[in-house]
User: What shape does this take?
Amino acid sequence: MRNLPQTVIQESLVEPQVIEAFARDAQAIVGADQISVNPADLLANSRDYWPVNNIWMIEGALPALPQLVAWPGSADEVSALLRLADKLKIPVTPYGEGSGALGGAIPLKGGISLDLKRMNRLLEIDEESLLATVESGLNGALYEESLNRAGYTGGHIPQSLSCSSVGGWLACRAAGQFSTRYGKIEDIAVSLQAVLPDGTIFSGRSVPRAATGPRLDHLFIGSEGIFGVITSATLRIWPLPEKRHLASYTFADLKGALECVRLIMRSGARPAVVRLYDAQETGNHFPELGDQRCVLILLIEGAEKIVAAEAEVIKELALAAGAIDSGPDHVEHWLEKRFNISVASMLFQKGAVLDTIEVSTNWHNAHNTYLAMQNALLAVEGTILASGHYSHVYPDGAGLYMTTVGFPGANKLKFYKEIWQAAMEACLAQGTAISHHHGIGLHRGLWMREEHGSGMEVLEKVKKALDPEGIMNPGKLGLGEVGLWQK
Amino acid sequence: MAEVNMEQLLNCALCPNMCRCDCPVLQALGREKVAPAGKARFAAMYKQNHLELDSEVIEAIANCLGCRGCTVRCPFPELNLCDELLFARTPDKEGRQGHLASWEPYLANLKKYSSPYGQKSFAGGRADRGADILYFNGCTALANHPQSLAAVEKLFQKAGVSYQLINEDCCGYPAETWGDPELARSLAAENYRKFVESGAKILVTSCPECWLVFTERYSGWGFGLPLEIMAAPSYFLGLVNDGLLKPSAIGQRTLSYHDPCIWARSAKITQEPRQLLKSIPGVNIKEPLAAGEQTHCCGGGRMFQLSFPKTAEAIARRRLAEFPSGAAIVTACPFCREGLSQDNQTVLDLLELLAESCTK
Assistant: This one.
């Protein structure tokens, strides 16, 4: 292919003869048809859904290119490929479905894009212990639909369900919309199998609880490919709910609504979906409610009697807090629209820069974090919108999901960096965690040291121990030297 | 060839690929370059002069069945990516785009025989002069399942309906698929002339791809058809409902209907075939996974069985795994019939089954 688009943040490339040496031996491992240096494959595996990739695409540029794509079919093949890459010191970037929002799948130093799409089998459903064992490359929607046909749900329904993989969920510590009942992916995962760069295959045990030293499986959940490659996992599943109850309430102000949600969590009620929108998002997503009140969306599911009891407890608490019962229709509307992300594509074309920034906060600063982040975002020149909703709630706090849109004119990347800097500074000042479920990837690594303090040294030591050659997804999670993007 | 709608193409290219689980090609090949938004990104970058369109990219973009599976979850109601990507198959004035070399023999066949199959598919047939109904069988069924025409003729005769057949030329869909819109237009012109000369009022076809070009393309190609276009399942259901066809039992049979993607998603014909099956006494229907408008392509869309036979076979095998055991597969499309007939799998044709049941 001639005239490939320009790469913008390619840190380095591996010498071509080293890639050729890898390709020769890799053919014997996976077969000649399961590796490619075809530019169309390299181009396709060069990016994920980090908004900056879209800005570059419109401008005719790419973040960075891999030099070879490999499609292993088993953990053994992953092991052999990683051993080979480690020996030749070739960077390896795992690739699932490419829906990551922070640039985690970008091959900054070229090398190999290890694409897991062939490892897409649902291996077993254990109906007695309510567990499913699944390969990491399986598409999320296909996983959930397979479970549904067997009478179960995986309980993990992110907005990216149809464009993300099970391995991606684990690698990024993802959250689904039904997380208050079923948990985030780290709660749903019981065990996993992962391959280290030296070829070691780690297989966790699928027991419910154990006191057998640290649960090493959790080392890989959220590791975003920096320690190795997740190849399969055993996840909790649930029987499809007998009953689903939809309810919504509107509140005069966000702070009062938040306090009500906190009390709902304190009561022991565990709705699957709890979403509290600020007034602006209430008006945007539910125009029939206007933009003066804050709507709380609830979806309660499970055994009929338990659902009825939870609905009653919640209603009492909501009405006591002065809320207006707004019925089930708004929840139906949300269910219908919850996967529709069309506005992002349309706004990008009109010259906008937009992103969503999700953070995790305890109750005591849940409202202050919202105010601080909103003010910080609005203070950036070019911002026209900074709104938020609490998309996931727990007894100890909530996930806050800020949406921001701006029309910065020509220098979109400068604006992008400014809004993130403003949002992250505000977030950290509140003692709030810088990510709830999108993960770190490339971009959010900028704030990892402030997030973790000395914990970052621990992360670096673990990285050094497991990946001494530093081949696994270099430049991510804030590890390594400052790169072109950060500069 | 229609102009590319850049806004829609970019809507797709800038999307995280919400439809990727519904793309049979991506699911069968597992290659990011054939993901719907991946193809749209190639196309958009090319259209904006950021990427050369060489044979590798054209092949990736052409790995599209035209099944419109990507519309099932698409958040953009106006987007038809399968058609937006057609441009890349067609050479432009500078010769920058173009069809793949492997398609040339089929285009040569179309030019020589008016059929991609290397033989003139139909040398004439019954013509009830002045009959209102004109039946168009399509070259794929005629080439691969010539008995299908006999079954349809039996149905017309049992119903006492006069009908015409013509010396069919290929409908033009394959020529468009293989990047020769001029050839597609010339074939359409011949069919148009014959349709008009027939004086028929209703054109009935059992081939979904023929139906698609008659309804969606001919007018744009300058051949607005002065006939009503009817899909055969709808037409023959009408004859059953009017009492002109009286299906009788052909034994206890459990059948599973495979919705051809064009009938299901473009023509919205999903209930009619099932009603036809239910009109046959003793038939029990068991649904496959992915039925109705959510159907999965058999792998035969956009001439894949000729263009990309290995991929077509892989897609068919995935689809076959979605059918319930103990049920015979029945469909209403010559490509689906061909594609799903893997490993000696018997695939029944809806109209042939109906004809078998219409003994009275």
